[in-house]
Amino acid sequence: MSIRTQHAAVRGLASLRKFVQKPPPVEICELCAARLSEEHQHLIDPQSRRILCACDPCAILFSGNGQTQYRRVSRDVRYLDDFRLDDALWNSLMIPIGLVFFYKSSVSGQVAALYPSPAGATESALDADFWEEIVDLNPVLGSMQADTEALLVNRVKHEREYYLAPIDECYRLTGLIRQHWSGFSGGSEVWEAISTYFAGLKQRSRPARIKTYA
User: Fold this and answer.
1) Which among 67, 65, 66, 33 is positioned nearest to 52, based on CA atoms?
2) What is the spatial distance between Cα 194 and Cα 190, in angstroms, rounded to a whole number?
3) Distances (CA, A) of 22 to 10, 15, 19, 26, 134
4) Distances in Å between the alpha carbon of 204 and those of 96, 174, 192?
């Protein structure tokens, strides 16, 4: 076979692959199977912590405070300026890395602390007294919605960032870390992904200043 014939055969195979490759999966509403755009609503099952993709009409059904199986996750991100959490109190929480999110479960009635890891979201024991101290210092946390909203903390290296963020955003960060982590320390790729994630989150957030008690 001549070189020209070989090149023609390779081009032919490349063209054939375009037809046999499967198209990218299309996201659908997990309640009614309607096709979804890239930006869409999410629901959460408080019992299982499972997050579902939903269309706008289905999501609206779960927007109230009634007793339903699912709860609608807000898209609102608030950057907490002047958040008060000194190193001594932070160290008392015994979080092994500088990333964690805290959310209140309506099922248990307790606040859980979860940190992203290569294995997924890992729960860390949280002393209720320490959490109450954080809330006393930052009363805005009293408005944090159970199940759907979390206090997201970024204390990686010299960062000191605090957000009231939708719970799906916290799990998205967990997924990024699982995707990009390599080796023992994570590798440069994962830390670049974390930095990019928080830069985008801050850009989309609105400021929420902290009112503290004297």
Assistant:
1) 33
2) 6
3) 20, 14, 8, 11, 50
4) 28, 19, 19
Domain boundaries, the chain: 22-73, 78-209
Burial string for 37-53 (b: 16+ CB within 10 Å, else e) reads eeebbbbbebeebebbb
The Cα–Cα gap between 87 and 153 comes to: 13
What is the token pair recorded at 164? 């009231």
Token pair in block for residue 210: 């902290």
Q: Under DSSP, is residue 103 helix (H, G, I), strand (E, B) or coil?
A: strand
DSSP 27: P
Separation of alpha carbons 123 and 63, rounded Å:
27
| Total-model pTM | 0.83
| Cα Rg of the chain (Å, integer) | 22
Token representation of residue 16: 């054939």
Side chain identity at residue 25, one-letter code:
P
Q: Which three-class secondary structure state does DSSP give residue 18?
A: helix
Instruction: Report percent pLDDT > 70 for the chain.
Output: 85
Sheet order of strands, 161-166 included: 120-124, 111-117, 99-104, 149-154, 161-166, 78-81, 206-209
The alpha carbon of 196 is separated from its chain's Cα centroid by a whole number of angstroms, namely 14
> Is 90 exceeded by the pLDDT of residue 147?
yes
Could you give the angle at the alpha carbon of 143 between the alpha carbons of 176 and 127, nearest 5°?
70
